[in-house]
Design a protein that fits this description.
Largest sheet: 3 strands, mixed
Shape: rod-shaped
Structural class: mainly alpha
Strand order of the largest sheet: 1-3-2
Radius of gyration: 41 Å
Order of helices and strands: HHHHEHEEH
CATH class of the largest domain: Mainly Alpha
CATH architecture of the largest domain: Orthogonal Bundle
Bound molecules: zinc ion
Strand content: under 5%
């Protein structure tokens, strides 16, 4: 099938390497199948958190607007109280004018009447403007309150949908990764650690190759490609650090059910390779 070169490994050791290669191939396929679920499980909570932050921002803006409106109402109330006090002052000034016993007192009282009348007129104008502004502000507040309520409802619905979807995705992911731990147990810890590190950075920790080129476009030398097909050693890509595994080590779908004792069967390419390598 292909040339044998390099130093032959003892049979037991080479078989172990091949078991690791098969496990790496299976592991990479499981993780590839789970990848979109992993991404969804990572992204959905972020989306919910962002929406929650948007609701909080809107609530804070609404609260600030409500406080402003309250302050304007307080100012309006102060105007009302001032008007009552001015009316009292005006009434007192009129009484003084009526009771004036000389021109000087009369002139002073009339001036007081004029001043109070002017201040009352000014207060009335201010009050009228403030009433109009308060009406507009009240309408705006009501609109924003309605919008906030609608947004809250939308958020709660989206949150519920996201939670349902997370549960659904977790169930699908659990199905996909069933048996992963057993596969990982076959692989030496340091290889698993490197695999996970590369997967975290590159999205995948293994490149299943059929031609002497890594997914990162790095060419695989003829000797290494031969090793990979023979399953005599475990190699990482010199460029992207992914473990390079010949695609032939991946059990086929129709024999995956018997993958546990695949090494005992003769149906797939890797087994033929093993047999050939040690014949
Ligand atoms: Zn590579």
């Amino acid at each position: 099938m292909f040339a044998r070169c390099g130093v032959a490994l003892p049979k037991v050791e080479e078989t172990l390497v091949q078991e690791v290669l098969i496990a790496l191939a299976k592991l990479s396929q499981i993780d590839e199948d789970a990848r979109s679920y992993d991404e969804e499980l990572r992204d959905l909570p972020v989306t919910v958190a962002e929406m929650s932050a948007n609701v909080a921002t809107l609530e804070a803006a609404f609260e600030a607007e409500r406080e402003q409106h309250q302050e304007a109402q307080d100012v309006r109330q102060a105007h009302r109280e001032d008007m009552v006090s001015r009316q009292d002052s005006l009434a007192r000034a009129r009484t003084k004018a009526n009771q004036a016993s000389n021109v000087r007192e009369m002139t002073a009282a009339e001036r007081e009447v004029d001043t109070n009348r002017r201040l009352i007129r000014e207060r009335e104008e201010d009050a009228s403007k403030l009433d109009t502004a308060l009406e507009v502000a009240a309408q705006s507040l009501k609109d924003h309150e309605d919008k906030l309520a609608a947004f809250r409802t939308m958020f709660e619905e989206s949150k519920k949908q996201a939670e349902d979807r997370i549960a659904e995705v977790e169930a699908m992911r659990a199905k996909v990764i069933k048996g992963r731990d057993e596969i990982v147990a076959v692989i030496p810890d340091r290889v698993v650690a490197r695999y996970e590190r590369v997967r975290e950075h590159k999205g995948s920790g293994v490149c299943l190759i059929e031609t002497p080129t890594c997914i990162c476009h790095m060419a695989v030398g003829a000797q290494m490609f031969n090793d990979l097909q023979r399953g005599s050693d475990i190699h990482q890509c010199r460029s992207c650090s992914r473990y390079l595994v010949w695609a032939g080590w991946l059990p086929q779908a129709d024999d995956s059910a018997e993958s546990a004792d695949a090494s005992a069967t003769e149906s797939s390419a890797p087994e033929a390779t093993v047999a050939e390598a040690h014949s």
